[in-house]
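## retry 2 of 3
previous attempt timed out at serialization; input unchanged, resubmitting
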Amino acid sequence: MRPELAARLGENVPRYTSYPTAPHFHTGVDAVVYRGWLEALEGGDEISLYLHIPYCDRLCWFCACHTRQTRHYEPVAAYLRSLYAEIATVGGLVSGKGRVRAVHFGGGSPTMLRPEDMLRLGTVLRDSFVFLGDAKVSVEIDPNNTDEARLDALAEIGMTRASLGVQDFDPKVQKAINREQSFLQTKAVVDQVRSRGVDSVNLDLLYGLPHQTRENLCSTVAQALTLEPDRMALFGYAHVPWFKKHQTMIDEACLPGPTERFAQSRLAARAIVDEGYESIGLDHFAKPGDALAVAARAGALHRNFQGYTDDRCETLIGLGPSSISRFRQGYVQNMPSTGEYGRMVADGRLAAVRGIVLCDDDRARGWIIERLMCDFAFSAIDLVENFGQAGQRLLLQARSIALKDPAQLLELQGDSFVVPAANRPFVRSIAVKFDKYFESGKARHSAAV
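## retry succeeded, writing output
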């Protein structure tokens, strides 16, 4: 690796699941603004829904999600009552104008819900929103709290894709991150999911974990591949103990350094591609016939808070504490505190507390960053045609970056700006060059690779 690239391994930059990123949201965008955006939806709009389940029955020390541990079900039941209230309020404001194209249940651990509550949640959603007949329903599954009854309930509410967290199958690594989960346990859930007609299974793996080596990571990848998932994600562990205090339970002395992390990511990615999977963006992989791979080849890949997606909906409505919604006008985020969120939605109020309104420059920069993250390239012609003067100004900036950067992370090839193949692992470091908020922000981020 060239020295100037090796020096970038430890850079801390955003993951760019949105632009502007969440640390730049502000309280000027509140429930009043959110209500206006919901009411402005039009009859032909297609929307996606994200539902956040902010509870787990154990706390994985590597996790950076907004969640909390509980060994009792009453807090979960109480939360669901709040979620039903928010769904009713938001659904009433949408009032059938938007049609649901996709639903994603995330967490936390959605499979903590009891089967009867999963069924009720599905009913409340369909009573409150108009669903398209071929709407996709994705669920994040924890094999440790999943049983036949829960899978039956998920199948009944229309689950079409299951995403299972694996992380690493090595017992020493699992103990270090407080996530014990055997291969056989994972295989059983994958088999049970498929037996219920679910046509897409995704597995999430991590590199850069404590005690993780290239050898044991490759062993995990090999075992995961025997399950023949339709998609795989290979994320770098984000060690952010200043943001998630439970990560202090992880011994930093046992974490691989930047060079070793890079080696792990490249070796694991190569093993997945060698089995016939197509590389999707920075860290996803899919079988050639999977919708994600088809979208990537067509230049129709997108990126949102769940990662890479073929979801083309411009509007994403987030439900639950800390959830973020995206509209053509901007972003809005719900109150993160579960208790305060419950008090806000109990009397029919919206829980939005912060966000950002997009200007033309934001939209143009966001488009560049999304295309870099998805395609490792963007067209100069499309930039100007789509964004006019804002695009023209950024075209000049892009040319300057391509011509003056000694590392040559971005090259001008014809009328397109392209990230050379060798530089693609560093695409987040390239995207940050188009982020006008980055230098003025105080947020701390995870490693670039």
